[in-house]
Amino acid sequence: MLITPRSKLLFIGDSITDCGRKRPVAEGLFDPLGNGYVAQVSAILGATYPDRPMRVINTGCSGNTVRDLKTRWQGDVLDLKPDWLSIMIGTNDVWRQFDSPLFPEVAVPIDEYEQTLDALVGTTKPLLKGMVLMTPFYAEPNLADAMRAKMDQYGKVVLSTAKKHGVIGVDTQAAFDRALKHQHSTNLSWDRVHPNAIGHMLIARSFLDAVGYVWSPVRREK
Length: 222
What we know:
By secondary structure, the protein is of the alpha/beta class. The protein is 45% helix and 10% strand.
């Protein structure tokens, strides 16, 4: 696996990352990481790699856009000095364009989204051992749906930014699309945005696959 033992792995994002995590910084005892994919990743790593302990931190904040990440970047990323950083942002940047059309100032247009994400990645990458950029997703199989189409555009920005900077890009929308071929979206997310446990595991698995996690510890030991 790419993440080495005793690395500090920090996840930042919106409500999909937050998931009720502890404040001000989610790490330590008594299940501080929330009830989403961050906690699942930590639990899987802890259970199958007991010889390779990793320090997992969650600084996700519900409702955040990439603008909000920029505002709190110093305190919630740089000051914590992670070895690895995972960024998953974009859902609210898109969603506010649809659920709050009378308040365009709360949404983040795609050009600002791209410029802000590019700047955060570019200035932070030299300080890290590794970085993962995960696309936003919308659990809607109809590609012609307006919000799904817009989310796909923002997802392409994430993957192109990852490629530009030579970091890991993860297409979480593709993971949901594979599941949506066999299941209705309500079995993954009640509102097509906030995942249930199955939906979060799709994200967790996508992340772990991207960093080279070996799903069979027996095979790993051989």
